[in-house]
Amino acid sequence: MHILVCIKQVPDSAQIRINPVTQTIMRQGVPTIINPYDLFSLEEALRLRDQFGGEVTVLTMGPPMASDSLRKALAIGADRAVLLTDRFFAGSDTLATSFALTQAIVKISETFGAPDIVFTGKQTIDGDTAQVGPGIAKRLDLLQLTYVAKIVECDPDKREIIVERRSEGGVHVLKTKLPCLITMLEGSNEVRRGAMKDALRAARAEIVTWSAKDAGIADMTKCGLKGSPTVVKKVFAPPPRSERAFFVPTADVASQEAENLITTLFERQPALEQDLTTTAAGF
Amino acid sequence: MSDKPAAPASAPSRASMKKELPEHFRGYKHVWVLIEIERGTIHPVSFELLGAGRKLADSLGVELAAAILGAPGETMREAAKEAFAYGADLAYLVEDETLADYRNEPYSKAMTQLVNAHKPEILLLGATTLGRDLAGSVATTLLTGLTADCTELAVDADGSLAATRPTFGGSLLCTIYTLNYRPQMATVRPRVMPMPPRVEGREGRIISFKPDLDEDQILTKILKYVPDRDSAKSNLAYADVVVSGGLGLQSLENFQLVRNLASVLGAEFGGSRPLVQKGWITSDRQIGQTGKTIRPKLYIAAGISGAIQHRVGVEGADCIVAINTDKDAPIFDFAHIGIVTDAIRLLPALTEAFRKRLSPHSRDRLAG
Ligand SMILES: Cc1cc2nc3c(=O)[nH]c(=O)nc-3n(C[C@H](O)[C@H](O)[C@H](O)COP(=O)(O)OP(=O)(O)OC[C@H]3O[C@@H](n4cnc5c(N)ncnc54)[C@H](O)[C@@H]3O)c2cc1C
Ligand SMILES: Nc1ncnc2c1ncn2[C@@H]1O[C@H](COP(=O)(O)O)[C@@H](O)[C@H]1O
């Protein structure tokens, strides 16, 4: 099997700081990681490869330094890494991103063989849209299985796959045909650490690096800002609430504190007492 | 009927960020909301979206339509009635056996066909597993813009949809436009928008639409549907009272104090993200930007610092009570009532005090 995994290098956004004066993001020095959701998809891809044989290719679109993430993916166990990098891609929204990635996947198919399964992450932690996966699926005409909790069965010969897909109120067991696009749910598997031999291989591996032209993209108007139907007009910090909390007096004994709190609560929110009495009675 | 874009992407220059809506999009009018039905039940987010859509339609002076997809049957008419009660002026009923349960292929085809036939200006969907799955496919097929997980929707001076959403892991907000493509698409998470009032008996028009679908050409089959056990399902998003805990509780044993208070209040319990990572709570109980958005009447947060990612998930609560040892914790910037104290000490006392206060005995007193 040939399995392709799209990964994105993202800022470890827990550590993002905002410049209080200019209200802009201070990106310098922010460490980057592989989008955590992508790791569950990578792991699932590796499991399928281990079971059926074949290769896992990882693909990312990003600046040259995104090769760091590809190398990490190789160290975890991927067989091949492709970096799509070009200044034309700057400012891509999800539609333009899925266009560029799709073109790269077509090129990968021509060069290394067509993937049987394309994985993407459920969503990214920076873009957080969950749109790029469905975008790629639509453009490549792949069947789409998002929010997959479990791959129940995969039969590469019959070209069939059965998965459990999470919905709002339950789980759908779906059967579909390969090739398809899958996004895995977080926690659906345990991501491996990667073997020593993979770490050594990763350090030396050549990363296939393509520009837009290399990937066969002729129509640059579909890339980057130009190819993005959405326009970000304004970025701003959330406005603070006009007043701070009303502080309840503390006390030496906890029971007194509890009384103070409840008294304040019901004074300020008189309707709550009746509401709470009703909800509490329901239990 | 086609499920291809209405016109080939002409790729106008957009770097200028000016609105130059191409001629063929000018006829796109009205605001649509996808009504999400799973196993005969309408997801409440659809009503919340009708509330938001109503406001957009009114400011644009256009109609609000509900797009209802499903197998032919009584459920569809019922859904239309509900949509009218929550503010829709009309309902498109897209009935076909292939639409009985959600599957990406037939749903995205049907939705695209409906859009191409009736041309909405704005299309809103819930940011649920169904809505997100569908929206991405439809927007890509139509080659239009889609803004995910919006927290605010408005119409600006020139009639464009201004969709605001958190960005960079929630540290900032941004406002996004789809100036030159139609429809302007957006998803909104459950509970982000308030539930509009339901007006019994409010009426609307029904327009039937027959999609061009064929089961034989749909490759994905549903083998089974396993509903979540009720006991396993938390009703966090829609609970009236929520008690939650954060890292300040220091241990899984202490987290039990949160559950105890919740149980006395008849409330749901939840927590901040680090507790999920520690395995103290399951991920469906995480509150915040990457967890659940809640809008309870009362939210009690114990030992939670109030990071922005947490804040965006709870801001819709009517009353936020924060218990934190640090008087400078950011949670006090958006809580309504705060107490600077040790939650581990206060919670048992608070549970006991509420138990007394809300017991049947004192309820009699309240009534008398
Ligand atoms: C992309 C991204 C998405 C995220 N999504 C979410 C999300 O959806 N939900 C979420 O919650 N977080 C989310 N986070 C994490 C968020 O940034 C914070 O790290 C998290 O909310 C902090 O959790 P906490 O308040 O429990 O812990 P801390 O920030 O460590 O706060 C603990 C608090 O407890 C107080 N405390 C200590 N001891 C006591 C005591 N005995 N009694 C009372 N108070 C005490 C401390 O003063 C402190 O304020 C996200 C982060 C990122 C980067
Ligand atoms: N620049 C990129 N390069 C490679 N994969 C990407 C890129 N952007 C998004 N993806 C994939 O699409 C998924 C969903 O991203 P998003 O729509 O941004 O939430 C991610 O988890 C990745 O697998």
Automatic annotation (TrEMBL), chain A:
Which superkingdom does the taxonomy of this entry point to?
Bacteria
The portions of this protein that span the membrane are none
Pfam families given in the database record? ETF
Q: Which residues form the Electron transfer flavoprotein alpha/beta-subunit N-terminal domain?
A: 22-219
On whether Endoplasmic reticulum is a keyword of this UniProt record, the answer is no
Q: What Gene Ontology molecular function terms does this protein carry?
A: electron transfer activity
Q: Kindly give the InterPro entries that the UniProt entry links to this protein.
A: ET-Flavoprotein_bsu_CS, ETF_a/b_N, ETF_b, ETF_beta_N, Rossmann-like_a/b/a_fold
Keywords on record:
Electron transport, Transport
This protein's assembly is summarised as: FixA and FixB form a heterodimer.
Task: State what this protein does.
Answer: May play a role in a redox process involved in nitrogen fixation.
Family named by the database record: Belongs to the ETF beta-subunit/FixA family.
This protein is called Protein FixA
Which organism's genome codes for this protein?
Answer: Methylocella silvestris
Source lineage: Bacteria, Pseudomonadati, Pseudomonadota, Alphaproteobacteria, Hyphomicrobiales
From TrEMBL, chain B:
Native source species: Methylocella silvestris
- Required co-factors: FAD
Question: What name is this protein filed under?
Answer: Electron transfer flavoprotein subunit alpha
Biological-process GO terms, alphabetical = fatty acid beta-oxidation using acyl-CoA dehydrogenase
Residues that hold FAD according to the record = 272-273, 286-290, 303-310, 324
**Top-rank lineage group of the source organism:** Bacteria
Membership in a protein family: Belongs to the ETF alpha-subunit/FixB family.
Q: Which UniProt keywords apply?
A: Electron transport, FAD, Flavoprotein, Transport
